[in-house]
Amino acid sequence: MAFNQFGQPVGEPLTDWRVPQRPAGEPLDGRFCFLKALDPQRDHAALFSAFQLAPDGRDWTYLPSERPDSAAAMLQHLTQLQANPALVNMTVFDSASQAPVGTVAYMRIDEGNGVLEIGHVSWSPAMKQRSSATEAVYLMLRHLFDDLGYRRCEWKCDSHNAPSRQAAARFGFNYEGRFRYAVITKGRSRDTDWFAITSDRWPAIKAAFEQWLSPDNFNAQGQQKQRLQAFMR
């Protein structure tokens, strides 16, 4: 524990701290997927088709908007996302098909304190419960911690959104608490659950991701041999 000149306990000094750069939508390449900066004109038609693989719009219940019901509506949705200066939006592409299959964003970016959030996570059925979903999050985490030098990455979700809470835990985010009556969304009160990965924990989490993503962890049919949680332990 560190103490100041008055003998009071204080945080550890950051003697080598450097303010990181804001993410700029740099391309991120993986084995199962790759990410590029969102381009609404380029991506909207394929994304509309990908999200239409779901029989209904239940995957959008906890997102700020409902699932677009046409390619034109998808273009409008993506254009609105892109117009928000607080977001750095990314499109996720499937490596095998080269097609857009989801979107995600860096948000709540606070360069001065080295903190940001991965949010607006919107996976189509072509991504959900597949290796690309895990790899996309890994690529973003690696970029923000290793390339840019952030100290903390947050994950927040509606307290009722069980799949998002489970994903946060699976990816190594620590649960930090529930903010009651945090926001109003779609005319409903929302309690928000907070999760985070900090830079001191990142090396171990990174190693777990890379062990899971290793070709040795997949059989000839592309099925995992061990779950990510096994490596997180």
Automatic annotation (TrEMBL):
- A single Gene Ontology molecular function, please? protein-N-terminal-alanine acetyltransferase activity
> Coiled-coil region(s) at which residues?
none
Reading the lineage from the top rank, the first entry is Bacteria
Q: Which Pfam families match?
A: Acetyltransf_3
InterPro entries listed in its UniProt record = Acyl_CoA_acyltransferase, GNAT_dom, Ribosomal_N-acetyltransferase
Q: What is this protein called?
A: N-acetyltransferase
In what residue span(s) does the N-acetyltransferase domain sit?
Answer: 49-191
Recorded GO CC terms: cytoplasm
